[in-house]
Specification:
The chain has 205 residues and is an alpha/beta fold. 42% of the residues lie in helices and 22% in strands. The chain has a single domain, classed as 2-Layer Sandwich (Nucleotidyltransferase, domain 5). The protein has seven helices and five strands, in the order βββαβααβαααα. The chain has a five-stranded mixed β-sheet with strand order 3-2-1-4-5, with helices on both faces. A hairpin with a 4-residue loop joins strand 2 and strand 3. The protein is globular.
C-alpha cells in the first residue's frame, strides 16, 4: 500500500545546566526525552498513526537516546513542532555533538535529512519565539495539554522517572498535531476524525 504523504511531529524534553561561575563550563541542555508522532496518509485516503518515544535518566548519557532516534526517525516527511528551531532542533543538534562521534554523526545525518524537508513551526502564527506557551494556545482550540513544569522534568530526569518523561513528550506531540488540525480551517476533517478514532483506542499517553 503506497504512502503518499507523511507528517512527523517532534517533541523533546530537556534539562538546562547553568554555566559555571568561572566560565569553565557554558550553559548546556541535557536531552531527557524525545517523541515522534508519525501520521501517514495512504493512497486511498486512509490515515495511519504511530507514536514513538524514549527517555533517559541522569547519568545514562544521551547516546542511547540518539541510537533509538536514529532507528525510528523517518527519512522523509513534513516536520511539525512548536518553536521548532529553538526548542526542538537546537537541543537535538547539541546532543548529537557531545557523545560518541559515530553515534552522533549517524543521528545528525538522519535528523538533517528529515528537517531539510518542508517543516511547519506552529508557533510562527502566534508570535514565534515570543509566542504564549503551547498549552495556552491549545486551550483556545479546546485542546487540553497539561505539560510537566521545568522543575518536574528535572526531577523526573534526576530520579529516573522515565514514564513521566515519556508521557510528557507524547502529550506535547499529540497536542501539536491536534493544534495543526484545528487550525486548518476545516480542511482536515478526515485526518481529524481518523486521529480521534486512533487516539480513543490508545490505553496510555
Amino acid at each position: 500500500m503506497t504512502k503518499t504523504c507523511r507528517f512527523v511531529t517532534l517533541a523533546v524534553a530537556t534539562v538546562d545546566a547553568p554555566a559555571s561561575v568561572g566560565g569553565k563550563f557554558p550553559l548546556m541542555s541535557h536531552l531527557a526525552s524525545f517523541a515522534l508522532l508519525i501520521a501517514e496518509r495512504e493512497g486511498e485516503g486512509a490515515w495511519a498513526f504511530s507514536l514513538e518515544r524514549h527517555a533517559i535518566a541522569a547519568g545514562d548519557g544521551e547516546d542511547a537516546l540518539l541510537k533509538w532516534a536514529t532507528h525510528v526517525m523517518p527519512k522523509a516527511g513534513t516536520v511539525l513542532g512548536w518553536q521548532l528551531a529553538d526548542r526542538i532542533i537546537a537541543p537535538l543538534l547539541d546532543a548529537g555533538t557531545i557523545g560518541d562521534p559515530e553515534i552522533g554523526r549517524a543521528f545528525l545525518d538522519r535528523l538533517m535529512t528529515l528537517v531539510t524537508m518542508p517543516s511547519i513551526d506552529l508557533a510562527i502564527h502566534h508570535g514565534g519565539a515570543g509566542a504564549p506557551d503551547l498549552a495556552s494556545v491549545c486551550a483556545e482550540q479546546g485542546i487540553v495539554l497539561t505539560p510537566l513544569s521545568a522543575g518536574e522534568i528535572e526531577s523526573a530526569w534526576a530520579f529516573g522517572d522515565l514514564p513521566s518523561l515519556n508521557a510528557h513528550v507524547a502529550r506535547e506531540a499529540i497536542a501539536v498535531w491536534q493544534l495543526w488540525l484545528a487550525e486548518s480551517n476545516g480542511k482536515a476533517m478526515a485526518a481529524s476524525e481518523a486521529f480521534a478514532s486512533w487516539l480513543a483506542g490508545r490505553t496510555r499517553p
